[in-house]
Structure formats: C-alpha cells, structure tokens
Write a structure and sequence with these properties.
single chain, alpha/beta, five-stranded parallel sheet, binds 6-O-phosphono-alpha-D-glucopyranose, Glutamine--fructose-6-phosphate aminotransferase [isomerizing], aminotransferase, EC 2.6.1.16, carbohydrate derivative binding, transferase
C-alpha cells in the first residue's frame, strides 16, 4: 500500500488525526507572510470585485463544505451565494450573468456530476474556480483558477481531512473576496486570519476528546436513529455529522436546522432518540438551547457539543456533553467537525462495520 495506516487501525482514524497537520499545510498555502493576510494565486485578483453573485456546486461532503462557505461569503464579502448539489445544478434553469465566479469543490476532482456542472457553467460564461485535493485531476485541469487543499491522499471512503481543508480554503477565499469588495477592513481580515491560524491547535485539543466521544458513540450505537441539529454554520455541520454517521455505521441519521425541529422531526423524539446538538457559545446559542429544551421535555437524549462558554450557560437535563475550547467563530465549523467524525468512527467500530470501505459507497463517483 502506498499510504500506510501506521499505528492506526483504519485510514479513517489516521486521516481524522492528521487534520491539525493537514490544516496547517492548507492554511500555509493560502496565507501570506507574515501570516496576517490571505494570499491567493495571481489569477484570483479581481474575480470577486464586480460580480453580483457567486455559485458553489459540489456533491456529498464537499457540498456541505460549500454550505458553510455560503455563510462566510455572505457575512465577510456581502456576496450572495447560490449553492446547489451538482446533480441538480445543471438541470435547473439558472439565469447566469457572464463573468460571475462559479466555485466547484471536490476532493477527487473526478466526480462526474461536479465535472459536468463545471463544464455547464463554463459554457455559460462563468469564471471557473475549483477547490480540489488532487492537483492533477480532471477538474483542476478544466478550471481557470485552482485552489488546492493540501490534505494529502485521503483513502477512507468517508471524507474527513479533505472536508476541513475545503472549509479552510473557502474561509480564505471569502476573506479575500471581502478585502477585494471593500467589506472587510485590514484589521478585520487580520483578526479572521489569526483565528484561522489557531485552528490546528484547537483541533489537537478536540482530538483529545476521543475517549469521551468513544463512550458516547457506544451509547449511540444502541439506537437505530439519530438526529443532528445546529444553527448558522453549525447547520451544515449537523448535516455532515448525520452523513458521516450513516455512511460508516449505517445508523439512520438526519441533520436539521435547529429551528426546523418543530416543523417535523420533533414528532420522532422519545427516549429512544439521541439528538446531537451542535452549539458553540455564539449569538445563536440561546435559541439552540431552547430547541434542546424541547428535546429534553420529550425525554429525548441530547448530546450537546459546545465550547467552554456554552457549557457554562447550557441548561441541565443533557444526556451527554462534549466541551471544546472557546474559539473564534470562523474556526468553529472546522474544529467541531472532529468530534462528529470521531462519533461516526467509534459508532461504526462498535457495530463492526467496514469503516474504510462502507458497503455500497465509492470514494469517487465517476458515473452520473
Ligand atoms: C463520494 C464519497 C464522499 C464524497 C463525494 C464527493 O460520495 O464517498 O466522501 O464527499 O463522493 O466526492 P468529491 O471527490 O467530489 O469530493
């Protein structure tokens, strides 16, 4: 085997634990010296300046990275984002304006639907940017601008380190777009970049939670279904947590925006329902806590994943709690992804599934 698992039992665990390093490499790729600005490839200059929309298209976990990216482009660059799943995007009648940027996100750079969407957007005059982990891939070669994630080879079918490196790259792009569009001051940019630069360290701390996550995973593995909820950038993360769990453990899992709980999934809540509540102590914390209260009131089993600030404010009645260090908002999705990945991994281990090669899944889907 070209890539060794070393002391890890599975590639998935190896790749989860590689994230502080992979993130460091990806950030080094996109941050300028002395590290307080984003420095993207020359071709990116001006690409976000006089545009009225940006589109992001991808599949699977890469699509969920794009969903987080939307919050950042809108918040930091005031740029409306149109995001879609690749297999839908090219069958919609999207009213394109020539010269708008279109971002495609893919670990492999070979996913058939994403590649076809890229060609579709290119034929309609969009400027093509791709965020890919394989620099020699078809998608990289077909793009005007390539933003590499430097995660290194990802072997486990369920994407882990590629996801967080995609997030880091999208964050850097959104910051660069904000600078270019005059919506971010130099000080604001420096603060965001400082936050990002701290991510690898926060990830290392998050990985130390593995024994606690393992214990929770064993409890979750006793149930047939699980729900993941979050608000803001924690919403796409809830989708990713659910996707990861179902991919590797085959436990039925759904991700929901916390505010949507009352519009459907609350009907399912009873004592047999673990609900992973992703809630850093940010501006939407109180609202998410009131959703968690609704779960508690119905004897559901909330597993709160929060930071120190959130832990000090959270109501009683939780089934389990995982506490991460308090960190800048821009880091939270990258760091909170790690306990979700470990939860899926250990649930799969508890259930004896084939973690690195889950049934029916492929690492790269090159058919439509
Ligand atoms: C497959 C993989 C997923 C991945 C998706 C998109 O479904 O199992 O882990 O997220 O394809 O792949 P890409 O290479 O385009 O990121």
């Amino acid at each position: 085997k070209a890539v060794e698992k070393a002391e890890h039992k599975h590639y998935m665990r190896k790749e989860i634990f590689e994230q502080p390093e992979a993130l460091g490499r990806t950030l080094a790729q996109h941050l300028g010296q002395p590290g307080l600005t984003v420095a993207l490839p020359a071709g990116t200059a001006g690409v976000f300046r006089d545009v009225d929309r940006l589109s992001i298209t991808a599949c699977g976990t890469a699509y969920l990275a794009g969903l987080v990216g939307r919050y950042w482009f809108e918040r930091y660059a005031g740029l409306p984002v149109d995001i879609d799943i690749a297999s839908e995007f090219r069958y919609r009648d999207v009213p394109f304006r020539a010269g708008n940027p279109a971002i495609f996100v893919s670990q492999s750079g070979e996913t058939a639907d994403t590649l076809a969407s890229l060609e579709f957007a290119r034929a309609r005059g969009q400027r093509i940017l791709s965020i890919v982990n394989v620099p020699t891939s078809t998608m990289a070669r077909a793009s005007e601008i390539v933003l590499p994630t430097v995660a290194g080879p990802e072997i486990g079918v369920a994407s882990t380190k590629a996801f967080t490196c995609q997030l880091a790259t999208l964050a850097c792009l959104a910051i660069a777009a904000g600078r270019e569009r005059g919506t971010l001051s130099a000080e604001a940019e420096a603060a965001l970049v400082r936050g990002l630069a701290n991510t690898p360290r926060a990830m290392t701390t998050a990985l130390e939670l593995e024994p606690a996550v393992r214990k929770i995973a064993h409890r979750v593995a006793a149930f047939r279904s699980a729900l993941f909820i979050g608000r803001g950038t924690s919403y796409p993360l809830a989708l990713e947590g659910a996707l990861k769990l179902k991919e590797v453990s085959y436990i039925h899992a759904e991700g929901y925006a916390a505010g949507e709980l009352k519009h459907g999934p609350i009907a399912l809540i009873d004592k047999d329902f673990p609900v992973v509540v992703i809630a850093p102590g940010d501006a939407s914390f109180e609202k998410t806590m009131s959703n968690m209260q609704e779960v508690i009131a119905r004897e559901g089993r909330p597993i709160l994943i929060t930071d120190q600030k959130g832990a000090s404010l959270a109501p009683q009645g939780r089934w389990e709690t995982l506490v991460l260090p308090t960190m800048p908002a821009i880091c939270a999705p990258l760091v909170f992804a790690l306990p979700l990945q470990l939860l899926a991994y250990h649930a799969a281990l508890a259930l004896g599934t084939d973690v690195d090669q889950p049934r029916n899944l492929a690492k790269s889907v090159t058919v439509e």
